[in-house]
Amino acid sequence: MKREERYTIILDHFRKEMPNVTTELDFDSEFHLLVAVMLSAQCTDKRVNMVTPELFRQYPTPQSLADATEDDVFALVKSVSYPNAKSRHLVEMARQLVERFDSVVPQTLDELVTLSGVGRKTANVMLSVAFGQGAMPVDTHVYRVSHRIGLVNDSDNTPLKVEQRLSRYIPKEELGLAHHWLLLHGRYVCTARKAHCYRCPIAHVCKSNEKR
Predict the structure, then answer these.
(1) Under CATH, which number does the domain 3-21+136-210 receive?
(2) Per the residue annotation, which of 16, 78, 139, 154 is the catalytic one?
């Protein structure tokens, strides 16, 4: 099957089945979304959503978080992965927002990645979810699923290469949706431990199935 045909079938399926999908992280502002996304690195959204209510209550603004100590934040996020590093990054990120961006989350990738603890994936999530821009965040689920089902080449062996390949074939206005489609497919169907092909609605066009 040609790649263009595979993209067409898979995207048409998700357009029909998940037309209005979005992040499973809970947030009430652009700033809090950034905090939640930073906490979600190598951690489940479920776990992040357990710690953010109190975190958001105590630190509703960049200034309030900038005034906190790393120990203050650690006490609230210690159950997530890498709490020491994340506590440090969160406080420093908030200080940078206050000092360099007047407490407003920037809306460009180049500016976002200058913030402490914010990499390209996190920046793309912000562009897509918070600001409605055409961006393709590539996390471990998107990376794995894209390779398994045949949307990218074996040589696309970095998140950036996967992002660039997907962005070539997916309409810009659907990149954010496609990120969630692939992420959720990887989270609940094509999981890291085992691909549940028997209940996969796109198994008939999956590249991995062709090899069996």
Answers:
(1) 1.10.1670.10
(2) 139
